[in-house]
Amino acid sequence: MTNSLSVLFKRLLKYFIAVIAAAGILSILARPRVNPYLGKSLQAILPKDREVIILEDLRTLSRQQLIGLFHQLVAPEVNEMKGEYRAYLLDSGNSFNRCLGMITLYFIWGAWIGKAFEPLSNRNGHGYNPFSTCLPEIHENIFHACLDRFIHTLRHLFIRDSCEERTVRIIRNKTHIGPSMFDNRTSFHLVYRDYNAFPVSTMHDEVRRVNDALYLGLGILTVTGGKRNPFPFVLMGPPDPWAGPDGGYPREL
Asked: Where are the alpha helices (H) located in the chain, listed in sequence order?
């Protein structure tokens, strides 16, 4: 039985990797569409004062509008980003992205609920991602996490054991202020390569400030097209206190 499950999982994993690779190739080869909202003022994209924009306003916008809005915002200071912020994935632009986002952010490790930051200086810091999960054990490595989810799902189907939700703090990153890969203006960057295995190591987020309560981010994954294929998300404050990642930080490289 165990051997059969292992073979089935390996097959599913191969299909998963093949789908991600194919999507990345298609995203790279596809001619990017012109975004009509680039260069538009904030008021032309969302006719509200920036200070009174709320989550529901951002949820009504398309990915192209969100990217246009991102270009009109400015970066927060590193010292401003401190604590655990609630997070929400916004319009991803197409069905594949929505499916990938649901699988990676709301299924494999559990439900993605936020991002957290701790400044180490006025130029850099580090952070992590909180998830709500009932998995008994969490691996940051996506392949181990997929296996854990697969086994847990089968166990729940046949045994129907209870599932007690808890918060885990994983998927660590380094943060810094620097030029944007989208428009060369300043952004607050989240870089994942030093603390994570492939493909999570290819993830890179940029964040800019909407107002006192909201921050708009663009997340990319190199294997799904990089900056040609960003995933918009929003961070919501006020933040809860910084708790630190479950695994700590081995050292600041």
From this structure: 2-29, 42-45, 55-59, 63-70, 95-106, 142-159
Q: Dump pLDDT digits (tens) for 168-222.
A: 999 999 999 999 999 999 999 999 999 999 999 999 999 999 999 999 999 999 9
Query: Domain segments of the chain: what residues?
Result: 2-240
pTM, entire model: 0.86
User: What is d(CA 214, CA 225) in angstroms, rounded to the nearest whole number?
Assistant: 26
Which of 56-70, 91-105, 176-190 is predicted with the least confidence, judged by mean pLDDT? 91-105
Each residue of 97-128: b (16+ CB within 10 Å) or e? beebbeebbeebbbebbbbbbbbeeeebbbbb
For strands 231-240 and 111-112, give the pairing.
unpaired
Write out the two tokens for 52. 């009174």
β-pair partners for 63: none
